Amino acid sequence: MSYLLRTLTKKEDVDSIIRDTIDKLLVLRFGRSSDSVCLQLDDILSKSEQDVSKFASIALVDVDSEENQVYLKYFDITLIPSTVFFFNAHHMKMDSGSADHTKWVGAFHRKQDFIDVVEEIFRGAMKGKLIVKCPLPPERIPKFQLLFKDV
Amino acid sequence: MSKGSMVHQVSVNGRLTIDEDKGSIDEDEVTTGLKVGIPLFSFNRSLVTRSAPVWLYFLVFSRYHFFVSQSQFLLAAQLGVEDSAVFRSTSAARWLGQFMLTANPIGFLNFVALCLDAGPLAHFLPVATRNWPTPAISICSQGRFTTASLEDSFLADLEDLSDNDNENLDEDTGDAEHMEDDVNGDLADIEALNYDDLDSVSKLQKTQRYTEIMQKVEEALEKGSNISNQGMVLEDDPEYQLIVDCNTLSVDIENEIVIIHNFIRDKYRLKFPELESLVHHPIDYARVVKKIGNEVDLTLVDLEGLLPSAVIMVVSVTASTTSGKPLPQDILQKTIEACDRALTLDASKKKVLDFVESRMGYIAPNLSAIVGSAVAAKLMGTAGGLTSLAKMPACNVQLLGTKKKNLAGFSTATSQFRVGYIEQTEIFQTTPPALKMRACRLVAAKSTLAARVDSIRGDPSGKQGRAYREEIHKKIEKWQEPPPAKQPKPLPVPDSEPKKKRGGRRLRKMKERYAITDMRKLANRMQFGVPEESSLGDGLGEGYGMLGQAGNGKLRVSVGQSKLAAKVAKKFKDKQYSSGGATSGLTSSLAFTPVQGIDLIDPQADANRLGSGTQSTYFSETGTFSKIKRT
């Protein structure tokens, strides 16, 4: 599935794509193409890519390459797949009722859920907000546990 | 004396009666009758008005046969003109005038003068004096031509009467019969057909032209197709002339068939009146009539092959309950003759069409390239020639040859509407049914163009016609292509298109139901420096704002009619009284009260109370303004 979407392995690629996506939401998925949950997410992403193409663009970042480890450290990505949203080089946050607002952890239940999330973030971004509320009901948000190192 | 068997008698009430078996026309009786009648008429002017045409006819007849003298005639005519409004109608006056013009010039002039005096100028004068020079008209208008005075002329006539014996009174019975027919019909309708004789109705077969053309056609058919490719001076070619004649002849044959059909129908109506409404086509009708003949029981008659079986069934059923009676032998004979004639005419029309069809490729190559020579021949025949076909608009060409479908009983079988001979073309037959109407229109349009090309001999080789045919085929192919596949469209950018706000009365009414009421508005405001009352007192609970405070300008704040509540109440009421299932069987509208006795409760009263409670209690509902000044 990941061959349908752009996969980024080098740091420059990631930089350039974040810089160069103007006025469109950028969806970066961090994960491995062999992981099952990643595969699910990738499937949904590839199907909806054409539908949201007017206001969003999607790219996959491979977690296993060495150059991207910087980003993993920066975004504190421990669970895969994790999806990070950018708009005009700003990092968009979403409050989905979970502990981490900076990224979306896990896959989506349906294609429509993903499109809803993207649309909500886009609306918020157009209004100038940097954090938006998730439109999905809690049963459709994948739950995860954050394990803190020291706690 | 004439040998007539009828006598016309003027009866007292002014109507003509026919007295049979009275012997010959007796001149004396007539004149006596006239002498009695005319003074009678002069007394009873109203009678003249009503029966003027009849009376008038009789008068002219008498004059024509010199039963009355000129003066008597004039007197009577004068009476008629003065009194009768009917006489002043165009046809009667015109007829009288025409007659008089031929029979009696001076009398005619007098008559004109009469008319001018009496006043029906507009009707009479333009017709009669069409060819007159103006001096004559002016002379007439100046005064009458005087002969002797009327009374003297009457006296003179009394002596003249006996001299009129030897005038030609030997009018044969044919005239009397004519009169009988005409008297019953409209006087002005001179061309009343004598239905007894077929030959007077249908003359075509006896004409020279018909026999000539048929002969030539048969010869040409036997000769086979003899295509002479001149193309240059076509009009001189005798065959071309023959073809043109054939076209006109086929139209004439059609008309003739219609006339004969009417004749057969009228005769056969006595026997089987419903048949004409069941079988419309003239040739089919003729065949059926010939087959049935004078038969009463239709099970003995085999109509197979003449009509479709549904129609045969209907015909047999109708025949069993028909109100007709068998025809007398001579009328039957005439009817069968007429049927035969119709059938021969039909056969000759077919021959003519075959001939034209065989020459069609030579006459109209382009048209026959598109629709085929048979259909082209039929079109040309119906239109009455290539030039007339070319002059028709395409919509008319499409409808040439439509048959009137006869749907018996409750049949809802829809025939293909608005398609004529075009239906028989190969192109039409091979198109799928959904596209048939469009194809028909297309073919009609192109064939009209081809006919126009052919009428001026613009393309003798037929290349244009073949090009049109190709075009038609291509278009029909294109119509049958599947539509292009739908591309999935990406979603539009959110919030890029502004929402279309609707407006209007309906929306306003809807919004009104949820609008803020006056009470709520008052409750939302507060007066400055005045603490508001609240529901729980002491500032706890919901505040009342300006409600109920002194000095807020409103005398009484009542609960306005809440439209939302009204709608809910209406629904509630409907639900309550339309449910039906939940009411107990022991309820009744009667209630016994100790004071009034039986009290009928109106079940709608409860519901009404809900609505009426919100009505305004200040203003009376029945009273009006006492004085309204108009400004």
TrEMBL record, chain A:
Keywords: Cell cycle, mRNA processing, mRNA splicing, Nucleus. It is found in: Nucleus. Its main location: nucleus. SMART domains: DIM1. One of its GO terms (cellular component) is U5 snRNP. It comes from the Eukaryota. The keyword Hydrolase does not apply. GO terms for biological process: mRNA splicing, via spliceosome. Belongs to the DIM1 family. Essential role in pre-mRNA splicing. Required in cell cycle progression for S/G(2) transition. Homodimer. Interacts with the U5-102 kDa protein subunit of the spliceosome. This is Thioredoxin-like protein 4B. It comes from Mikania micrantha (bitter vine).
Automatic annotation (TrEMBL), chain B:
Residues 363-481 form the Nop domain. It comes from the Eukaryota. Residues 481-495 have a biased composition (Pro residues). Keywords: mRNA processing, mRNA splicing, Nucleus, Ribonucleoprotein, RNA-binding, Spliceosome. It is found in: Nucleus. One of its GO terms (biological process) is spliceosomal tri-snRNP complex assembly. Belongs to the PRP31 family. This is Nop domain-containing protein. It comes from Mikania micrantha (bitter vine).
